[in-house]
Amino acid sequence: MKAELNKDPDLKALFHRGEHLIWITGAALSLSLLMITGLILLVISRGMGFFWPSPLTQVTGADGKDIAGVVMSSEKFRKQGADGKMVSGERSNIKVGNRDLYGLDFRWVEHEGLTNWCTPKDAIQIERWEYGDFIGFIKSFNQSDAPVAEGTVAWERFKKELPIALKLHRKIAEMERDEIGAINNDIRAAELKIKKIQFAEKDAVKRDSQVAQLQAQIAKDKVEFEEVRVKVAKLAESARTNSITMLSSDGREKTILMDQIVRAYQPNSMSFLQKAGHYIEKLTEFITDEPREANTEGGIWPAIFGTVMMTLILSALVAPLGVVAAFYLREYAKQGPIVRAVRIAINNLAGVPSIVFGVFGLGFFIYTIGGTLDSIFYPERLPTPTFGTGGILWASFTLALLTVPVVIVATEESIAAVPRGMREGSLALGASKFQTVCRIIFPAAVPGMLTGLILAMARGAGEVAPLMITGVVKLAPALPVDATAPFVHLERKFMHLGFHIYDVGFQSPNIEAAKPMVYTTTLLLLIVVVLLNVAAIQLRDKIRKKYQTGAFA
Predict the structure, then answer these.
(1) Average pLDDT for 111-119
(2) Dmax over Cα atoms in the chain, in whole Å?
(3) Which residue, among 221, 276, 205, has the nearest Cα to 48 in the 3D structure?
(4) I need a labelling partner for 291 at 20 to 30 A (CA). Which of 127, 298, 366, 418 fits?
(5) To 5 degrees, how large is the angle CA 77–CA 82–CA 84?
(6) What distance in Å separates the CA atoms of residue 57 and residue 111, rounded to the nearest whole number?
(7) How many Å apart are CA 362 and CA 344, to the nearest integer?
């Protein structure tokens, strides 16, 4: 190599200038961008296409039985033939639904021997609250277990009755959540007051009087609870009056109660506008509803809310902590070996595995601080912990510690970038050190601080490992914010989009059904992170423009 360079001076000069390294770096960056772009496009294509109604295909198998469902994918494969030689074949993965009949939702079918491929117009796909989809053909519409309409007439009757059944289902759910939930909360609160009085009140007569009043209130609440429960039971009974009888592709009958159905449609006979309306309805449900079917169906609103709320709490915690620490290290601390050691420790914290922060949060925040708070303020609730267990507050504290090194480093760099002349001019005009920091250095360094906060938000929103032991759960339909006093419940466990992806993608018993949900949730997590970052970037740019056109112009 050296001999070649000595023979060609131009090549030698090019080598010493390092231009080859620039090209290598550019190529690596381009390859990384292509890979990221490809991954995002894959997520978008698989995620956004999930809600579009796919055609229902029916085919006759080699055994003479019909198979109906959605063809999810097809592939070529090799298998051993009758003569012992390897031969090529093709197979398709079909979503056949009808889990309660077949015991599975998906079925791999080899194309060899299949006949009569078609897309029947009257094929129906029914989404249910449980047991997944049912795919088949309507036989009759029933009232009180007696058929009152068949065939096409049954389908028209069903479409008219389904909105009524859904409205009744929502009413029952609201009564269970609001009325019954409120009564249960009142009973629980009264029971806790009784325990608190028994702990604190020393006067036996006064204690017995207060306890008797609360017990009378509990008895009254229980009577009201029973009245509401009876109403709900009557509504549920009326919801079970109507039903439909369906035929699967292989001729099996299945009677489905109306209160078990979310929606039903005939994708093979839908127009483009009808499919577009179905798409919007499903997308809205995905964003605003709660999960069902082990998180593989329904919506992910609790996960969206939990992710955004945790990120906002994290930002509110990490910003002042990181900024104050950075200003102290840069402006007030005496530079020396101790400060250098602190900076080294901060830089090293950025490389500590996130699960270590989770273990620290579990031991320090939950068991130590949370357990102490329970023993001081909530002794009547023990041994059931209030703050001595995982929750959104402790998860946010843990992620704040995880991301604070990023904010400290970014803030220190932005402080160091403030021109020295601005400091000296402020001090020369008689301003104190504190006034100079507050009115000169801080405003000029704000854009850099927000850059650190943006990086902290991006990392914190996507972390999962620390959350698994500090408060995140598979299903938490009760949000940390609701209409029940004190309205904000930071001690509650919560759902998170990142953990939802992990749970659905790797812990679901029905992997094939979970795949579309993984892509859609991943896409939504990307959108949430981008929106949070865009909001922070716009705030940073607004502040930068304000001070560029002001005193520092």
Answers:
(1) 88
(2) 107
(3) 276
(4) 366
(5) 80
(6) 13
(7) 25
Residue 232, helix vs strand vs coil = helix
Rounded Cα distance between 91 and 111, Å, is: 5
pTM score, whole prediction: 0.86
Name the phi and psi angles at 535, rounded to 5.
-60, -45
How many Å apart are CA 240 and CA 161, to the nearest integer?
A: 12
Crossing angle of the two packed helices 181-200 and 204-239, in degrees rounded to 10: 170
Q: Token pair 């490809």 is at which residue?
A: 38
Report whether 525 contacts 497 (CB < 8 A). yes
Confirm if 162 and 155 have CB atoms less than 8 A apart. no
Inter-residue contact 107 to 94 (CB < 8 Å): yes
Among candidates 166, 167, 58, 165, which has minimal Cα distance to 117?
58
Answer left, alpha or beta for residue 471, where phi above 0 means left and psi between -120 and 50 means alpha: left
Q: How far is residue 341's CA from residue 199's CA, in Å, rounded to a whole number?
A: 49
CB 134 within 8 A of CB 254: yes
Q: Measuring CA to CA, which residue among 290, 249, 54 is closest to residue 134?
A: 249
Q: Are 99 and 130 in contact (CB under 8 A)?
A: no
**Tokens representing residue 506 in the block:** 């790797």
Tokens for 112? Answer: 């060899």
% the chain with pLDDT above 70: 95
| 503, 427 Cβ separation under 8 angstroms | no
Q: How far apart are CA 394 and CA 405, in angstroms?
A: 18
pLDDT, tens digit, 9 for 90 and up, residues 144-190: 889 999 988 999 999 999 999 999 999 998 898 888 888 998 898 88
pLDDT at position 448, please? 84
Report the DSSP pairing between strands 297-298 and 86-95. Answer: unpaired
Average pLDDT, the chain: 87
User: What are the C-alpha distances in Å from 155 to residues 121, 126, 149, 428?
Assistant: 13, 12, 8, 86
Which pairing describes strands 253-257 and 242-247: parallel, antiparallel, or unpaired? Answer: antiparallel
The token pair that represents 368 in the structure block? 């130590």
Q: Please report which helix (H) or strand (E) contains residue 262, including its range.
A: strand 261-265
* Apex 451 CA angle, 447 and 453, nearest 5: 115
